[in-house]
Amino acid sequence: MKRLLVIALALLGLASAQVQVRISGWGGTDVAIVNGVLENVVRPALEGTGIEVVYEPVEGDFQQFIFNALSAGTAPDLFYVDIFWSRAAFASGKVAALDALGVDAEPFLDNLVQAFTLDGHLYGIPKDFNTLAIEFNKDLFEEAGVPFPNQNDTWETFEAKLKAVVDRLGDVHGICVVPDFARFGAFAFATGWKPFNEDGRTVLDENFRRAFEWYTGLVDRGVGVLAQDLGQGWTGGCFATEEVAAAIEGAWIAGFLRDQAPNLNYGTTFIPKDPVTGQRGNFIFTVSWSLYEGSKNKEAALKVLELLTSPEAQQWVLERGLAIPSRAALANNPYFQRPGKEPQLNRVVFQGASQGNVFPFEFRGLGADWMNIINEALSAVLLGEKSVDQALADAQDRLDRLTGHK
Amino acid sequence: MHRRTEALYALGFLAPYLSVLGVFFLYAFLRTVYFSFTQYDLFHAPEWVGFQNYAALFREDLFLRALRNTLFYSFFVTVVQTFLALVLAAILNTKIRGVTFFRTVYYLPSILSSAAATLIFIWVFQRRGFLNYALGWLEAHAPILLTFLGLFLLFQLVQVAWERRLGLPVHLFDPALATASLVLALALTWFLVALGVLAPREGIEVKTVWLNTRREWLGVPIPLWSIIIMNIYTTIPTFMLIFLAGLQDIPKTIYEAAAIDGATPVQQFFKITVPLLRPVIFLVVTMSLIGTLQLFDQVALIGNAAPLESTITLAYYVYNSVFPSGATPKVGFGAGAALVLALLTLAVVLLQRRFGISERGY
Q1: Domain ranges (residues) in chain A
Q2: More confident residue, A8 or A16
Q3: Cβ neighbourhood burial of A157 (10 Å; 0-12, 13-18, 19+)
Q4: I need a labelling partner for A253 at 20 to 30 A (CA). Which of A132, A169, B88, B280 fits?
Q5: What is the mean pLDDT of each run of 10 residues along chain B (362 residues)?
Q6: Hey, of A287, A379, A387, which one would you mutate to test binding to chain B, going by the most B CBs within 10 A of its CB?
Q7: Mind telling me which InterPro entries this protein's record contains (chain A) (predicted)?
Q8: Domain-by-domain residue ranges, chain B?
Q9: What is the pLDDT of residues B168-189, one digit of tens each?
Q10: Quick check: B326 and A92 CB within 8 A?
Q11: CB-CB: which of A94, A362, A367 is closest to B43?
Q12: What per-residue confidence (pLDDT) applies to B61?
C-alpha cells in the first residue's frame, strides 16, 4: 500500500513537471506528415526536457476553427497560419510577434519570411511552401513528336506545343483551364501587373487584359478545355486521367498522381514567360507555424517551434517528397538532384519562388471577396456569357467598391 | 398547496430544457442584438455604432441579392412542394396494388442527407452531367417522339370517332382503345425508324451551364433554380408523409357519398381533401416557409461550383460575414443580417397565418 502511494506521488510529481505544448494544423495528408515529424524529430529531441507535444489536427474549415479559438482564448500554443488569411490573423493581436521573442528568421527563404511579416514584425516561421509549375505528360508529347515544354517557353511557344499535340493526337486536349485566380494570376503577374497600386486600388490595366485575353482564349483557340467539361474541378484532375497534355499545379499534385495515376510518365518545367516582358510570374502558397499570444508555455512552445522547422525536420519531410522546405540552405540538397519525376517536380517548385514576379497568395486581407470578383470575370468570359470588355468593366467596378475607391 | 407542488414539479422537469433554451437561445439572441449595433471582429472590443450596420446592409448589393434570392426561393419552393406533396400523398392514399412499395420509394429521397443529395445533384447538374445528357437525348429524339405522340393521338381519335359513330359512349382516353393506339403507334414509329424515314437528329448536345453561371431565367439565377429543383426533390417526401397521416384521418364515407353524387376524383380532391386537410396544410406551409427562409446547407455545399451571388441566401450571408474566407470577421454586420432574417421569418409566418392558409379547419 505504502509503495503504491509512493509511486502515485512520484507520477503526480512527474506529471506536474511536464509542460504540455498543444499544436494544431489541418487534417488530410498533413496528419501523416506532422505525426512523422513529431515521432522522428521532435519527440526524440525533447526527451528529458519535460516538454510534451500534443497534436490536434482539425478537419474542416481551419480558419474558422482558429479564429474562434483565438477569440475565445482556447487556441493551441502553436498553429498553422495560411498566407491567404494571415493578415486577418496577425491583425487580431492574438498572434505573438516572434522577432520580439528573439526568433531568428535568417535561415529561411526571404520571400517566405516577408510573407509572414506585417508592419515590421515577424508573426510566423514558414513551415513549407509551394509555387506553380507546368507538369506535362511525356508520353503524349513523345507520341505526337512534339518537343517537351521547357524553361525557355513563352506563352506563345508553350501554346504552339500544346496545339501541335492536340492536332496530331486528336483525342486529347492541351490543358485544362479553370476560372481561378490562383492559376491565372501567375500569368497576370508575368506582365508586370500588380494586384494593388500604391493607393491600395486594384487596376485591371492593359497588362492584366493581355494575360486575361490569352488565358481565356485558350479554349477558343482549341488548346484548352474547361476543367468542368471533363467533369473535373482542377487541372490536376484532368491531368491524371491523361485527357490533357499539361497541368498548372504545385507540388501537391505529386501525392495525388502517386495515388490516382502511378504510371503516369510526367515531367515538370517552369511556368512559361510573357513574350512581351520576358518574365514569368508565380504565386507563393505558404503556411507558417505561429505562436498564440496568450500561450502559458511560450518558452516551451518556442522550443517546439524551433524543432518543427529545424533542418532535420525539413530534411525528413523533403526526403519523403511530402513538402518543399522553407530553409534557404536546403536549396542545394542532394534530394533535388535525384532522378525521377517527383524530385524534378519539387526542384522546379522550389526554384519557382525566386524566378520573375512572385507574389504571396494574399490580397491585403480582402481574401476571397477580392479573388471572387476576378474568378467570376474569368468564368463569365470562358463560358461566353460576357465579352472581355464587359467582364473587365464589371470586375473593375466591383473591385473599386470593395477597395473603397468608389 | 397541492397546486404549488404540482407547479414546482413541472418547473423541475422543465428546468433542463429551459436552461438550454436560456443559454443557447435567449442569451445568444440578446448578444446578437447587441452585436448588431456594434463593429466587432471577434478579437477587439465591440465598438458601438448604432444603426450603422443596418444602414450599410441595405446599401450592399450582395445583401440585397441574398434577400431577393431568399424571398423568391422561399415563396416558390413552398408553393410547389406543398402542392406536389399533397398530390403525391393523395395518389399514394388510394387503394392501388403495391402502394406500400411506392410509398417507400417516394419516401427514399428524404432519407438522403442533404450533403449526399447535394453531391449527387452537383454531378447531375454538371455541364456534361446527367441532366444535360437527358435533355440532349430528348432534343435529338424529338422527331421520333413527336411522331409517336402524333400517331398515338391520330389512332386514338380515329378509333373514338369510329366507336361514337356506332353509338357507343366511349371516353376520349378509353384504356382499351388507348392500348390499341399505343401498340399501333409504336409499331408504325419503329417501322419508320427502321426504314430510315425518321432518325434522331445529329450533333445535338445540350450545354446548359446549371451551376457555374450568372445567367438568369425569369429573373432568377439559374444556379438558384438548380437548388430549387434539388430542395423540392428532397423535401417533398417528408411533407408527403405528413399529408398521408392527415389523409388517413378523413373518413372514407365522405368520399363514397361524393362519388355517389357523381363527383370526379379531381372534384373530390379540391372539395373534400383540401378543405379537410387545412390544419395539416397550415403545418406544412409554416414548416416549409421557415425551412426555406433559412436555407444554408445546399448553398454552402455547392460552394465554388456556382458563383456566390447566384446562390447566396440570407443564412449563408450571415455565415459568410462572420467567417469570410481570407478576411477579418465582420460579426456586427453578420449579426445585423441574422436579425433581419429572424424578423423576416417571423413576419412571413405571421402574414401567412393572417392571409394565407390558417390552421382553422372547415
Answers
A1: 20-131+286-353, 133-270+363-403
A2: A8
A3: middle
A4: A169
A5: 87 94 93 94 91 92 92 94 92 84 86 85 85 91 92 92 86 84 93 88 81 84 91 92 91 91 88 89 92 90 82 93 89 94 92 76 49
A6: A379
A7: SBP (IPR006059)
A8: 71-112+220-355, 132-195
A9: 888 887 788 889 999 999 999 9
A10: no
A11: A94
A12: 85
- List the single residue in A with minimal CA-CA distance to B214: A380
Which chain A positions have a beta carbon within 8 Å of B126's beta carbon? 228, 231
Residue A310 clears pLDDT 90, i.e. is over it: yes
Span A23-43, pLDDT tens digits: 999 988 889 889 999 999 999
* Contacting residues for A389 by C-beta, under 8 A, at least 6 apart: none
Interface test with B, best of A383, A390, A394, A398 (most B CBs within 10 A): A383
Helix pair B222-248, B278-293: axis angle to 10 deg: 150
pLDDT digits (tens, 9 = 90+) for A85-109: 999 999 999 999 999 999 989 999 9
pLDDT for B303 equals 78
Q: Side chain identity at B329, as an amino acid letter?
A: P
Task: Tell me which architecture the domain covering A20-131+286-353 has in CATH.
Answer: 3-Layer(aba) Sandwich (3.40)
Specify the fold of A133-270+363-403. D-Maltodextrin-Binding Protein; domain 2 (3.40.190)
Is the ipTM reported for this complex over the cut 0.90?
no
The three-state (H, E, C) secondary structure of chain B, written as one string: CHHHHHHHHHHHHHHHHHHHHHHHHHHHHHHHHHHCCEECCCCCCCEECCCHHHHHHCCCHHHHHHHHHHHHHHHHHHHHHHHHHHHHHHHHCCCCCCHHHHHHHHHHHHHCCHHHHHHHHHHHCCCCCHHHHHHHHHHHCHHHHHHHHHHHHHHHHHHHHHHHHCCCCCCCCCHHHHHHHHHHHHHHHHHHHHHCCCCCCCCCCCCCCCCCCCCEECCEEHHHHHHHHHHHHHHHHHHHHHHHHHHHCCCHHHHHHHHHCCCCHHHHHHHHHHHHCHHHHHHHHHHHHHHHHCCCHHHHHHHHHCCHHHHCCHHHHHHHHHCCCCCCCCHHHHHHHHHHHHHHHHHHHHHHHHHCCCCCCC
pLDDT of residue A229: 82
CA–CA dist A85, A367 (Å, integer): 7
Asked whether the domain spanning A133-270+363-403 has the same topology as the one spanning A20-131+286-353, the reply is yes
| Residue type at A223 in one-letter notation | V
pLDDT for residue B80: 95
Question: Does A116 score more than 90 pLDDT?
Answer: yes
The pLDDT of residue A7: 62
B71-112+220-355: CATH topology: MetI-like fold (1.10.3720)
Test the B interface: residue of A61, A63, A86, A398 with most B CBs within 10 Å: A63
> What residues in A contact B132, CB-CB < 8 Å?
none
CB contact under 8 Å between B328 and A379, yes or no, is no
Q: How far is A101 from chain B (nearest CA, A)?
A: 22
